[in-house]
Write a structure and sequence with these properties.
- The protein has one domain: paralog of FGE (formylglycine-generating enzyme) (Alpha-Beta Complex), CATH 3.90.1580.
- Helices cover 19% and strands 17% of the residues.
- It is built from 6 helices and 10 strands, in the order βαββααββαααβββββ.
- The strands form 3 sheets. Strands 1, 6, 7, 8 and 9 form a 5-stranded mixed beta sheet that branches. The chain has a 3-stranded antiparallel beta sheet with strand order 2-5-10, covered by helices on one side.
- The structure holds calcium ion (CA).
- Calcium ion binds next to loops.
């Protein structure tokens, strides 16, 4: 799915300031194939293990004026024309779309998962800028980070991982459907705002995946509201650049980024961030 938006990119930057992060870090120089190998046992034989089925259904996506005002009052920088801009970005009034059944990972992809992928495939990105910046070397994450979500990966990196697993990245619509369930809820657990311990947010670091039992969708999918924001396969055009639509809040964000209709449009298609990871999906008919 691809969108085109002709408004000023500056406006989008301003409404999404809470999700911005700094770039920097080292590039990979070593070939992952030269490092220690991982056993086959680290990749589940059953493609449905740690996945949930999301049945076919109707997604009502976007929001109404009341929902938009709830977002705005949580700290959006306002200026002339801002409301129209937000209506366009966040799809006000909402629309509906039929979504086919699919399977989705219950957890964000971890550093351990991604290391196994590197070791088994020798994957090396064409553009290495900021690739796995948080790792201690080109092929090793910090000892404590095994079960933490992998970040500093681009849409291309994530797509390669998912394809290796026989999966793909979710579309924006599929991701939002996983949050909203069948009752058009605002957060994975319902419509009430989260408590401080319910979601990994406004923090300096993420948690291990699946660490917040409140942050689970009607389909048993964890960390959609927080921990790390997530790449989708959906892109949007801004002037000369193609951007990835990133969904969900992160450890760096506040509550408004957890709204199901929220769209972070700041990441260029080859970009990487410390607060953005991913999970994979597969077609129901393929399983
Ligand atoms: Ca997440």
């Amino acid at each position: 799915m691809k969108y085109t938006l002709h408004r000023s990119f500056l406006l989008v930057l301003m409404i999404s300031m809470g999700t911005l992060s700094c770039s920097g870090g080292e590039s990979l120089q070593d070939n992952p194939q030269t490092q220690e190998s991982e056993s086959d046992s680290q990749i589940p034989e059953d493609p449905h293990s740690s996945m949930s089925e999301v049945p076919a259904g109707t997604l009502v996506y976007g929001t109404d004026e009341e929902g938009l005002m709830d977002f705005v009052k949580r700290g959006t920088v306002m200026f002339p024309g801002m409301m129209d801009h937000l209506r366009e970005i966040f799809v006000v009034p909402p629309r509906s779309e039929q979504v086919a059944a699919f399977w989705i990972d219950q957890f964000e992809v971890t550093n351990k998962d991604f290391k196994t992928f590197l070791n088994r495939t020798g994957y090396k990105p064409e553009n290495e800028e900021n690739f796995l910046t948080h790792w201690t070397s080109s092929t090793q994450y910090p000892d404590w980070a095994e079960d933490f979500p992998v970040t500093w990966v681009s849409q291309t990196d994530a797509t390669a991982y998912c394809e290796w697993r026989g999966k793909r990245l979710p579309t924006e619509i599929e991701w939002e459907r996983t949050v909203r369930g069948s009752d058009d809820r605002l957060f994975p657990w319902g419509n009430e705002s989260p408590g401080r311990q319910d979601v990994t947010y406004t923090s300096s670091d993420p948690d291990p995946v699946g660490n917040r039992p409140k942050d689970v969708s009607p389909f048993g999918v964890y960390d959609l509201a927080g921990n790390v924001a997530e790449l989708t396969s959906t892109t949007i055009k801004f002037g000369p650049d193609e951007h990835v639509i990133v969904k969900g809040g992160s450890f760096e964000s506040g509550v408004r980024e957890m709204f199901a209709f929220y769209r972070d449009l700041n990441l260029k298609v080859n970009g990487r961030k410390k607060s953005v990871g991913f999970r994979c999906v597969s077609d129901a008919e393929a399983n």
